[in-house]
Amino acid sequence: MGQPNPQTIEISQDVDVSRARQVAKAIAVSVGFDEKVKEEVAIAVSELASNLLRHAKHGHLTLTPLHAAARAGIQVESADGGPGIADVERAMTDGFSTAGSLGCGLGAVNRLMDEFEITTPCRKGGGTRIICRRWVRSPRRAGREGGRASSAGGGCTRARLP
Ligand SMILES: Nc1ncnc2c1ncn2[C@@H]1O[C@H](COP(=O)(O)OP(=O)(O)OP(=O)(O)O)[C@@H](O)[C@H]1O
Ligand SMILES: [Mg+2]
To answer: Does the C-beta of 105 come closer than 6 Å to ligand 1?
Structure first.
């Protein structure tokens, strides 16, 4: 049907962040997002890619067009073998940064995407894996204030479930 396949982008330098944005936009258009949501998905992808560079030195993003039963969307997966996140709860809080930055990236991704799950092993150096999804027409999104999160799976995983 001409839909792009899942695409994995290695993120190890600034130019890779731009490339990931472009791929995300292409997939967003292909699954039917409007201009506004396309930009929101691109922002989320930029934040995750920037985090790979800044906090893990390098990693990769896998961007996947989704065609579930009666809906379409995009999945963004970020994975790295960096130091991991010692306190996921704090890392998700706006204003917390170990890099002297604004500390709003992960919170923004959580708000911009419909589903968000972050997994990092309790042991240091185990890396970080984040999977998030945005749907073209999300029934949840219509009525929510944004950014509602719930914990799942113990202290090292935080998820906002659909
Ligand atoms: N891939 C990662 N590996 C290790 N730590 C991470 C990773 N992503 C985020 N973090 C941790 O979570 C914190 C919060 O991330 P967040 O993106 O919200 O803020 P930031 O990157 O510090 O600043 P900015 O607002 O510029 O994005 C980071 O400061 C860092 O400690
Ligand atoms: Mg960040």
So the answer is: yes
Give the residue whose CA is nearest to atom 17 of ligand 1: 105
Per-residue pLDDT of the chain (162 residues; tens, 9 = 90+): 444 589 999 999 999 999 999 999 999 999 999 999 999 999 999 999 999 999 999 999 999 999 988 899 999 999 999 999 989 999 999 999 999 999 999 999 999 999 999 998 877 788 999 999 999 987 667 655 444 444 333 345 665 544
Q: Counting ligands in written order, which one lies closest to the CA of residue 78? A: 1
Q: Which superfamily, per CATH, for 7-160?
A: Histidine kinase-like ATPase, C-terminal domain (3.30.565.10)
DSSP H stretches of helix in the chain: 14-31, 35-56, 88-91, 105-112, 139-143
pTM assigned to the model: 0.90
| Per-domain boundaries in the chain | 7-160
Decide whether any atom of ligand 1 lies within 6 Å of the 120 Cβ: no
Based on the number of CB atoms within 10 Å of its own CB, is 91 exposed (0-12), middle (13-18) or buried (19 or more)? buried
Q: Is residue 126 in contact with ligand 1, taking CB distance under 6 Å?
A: no
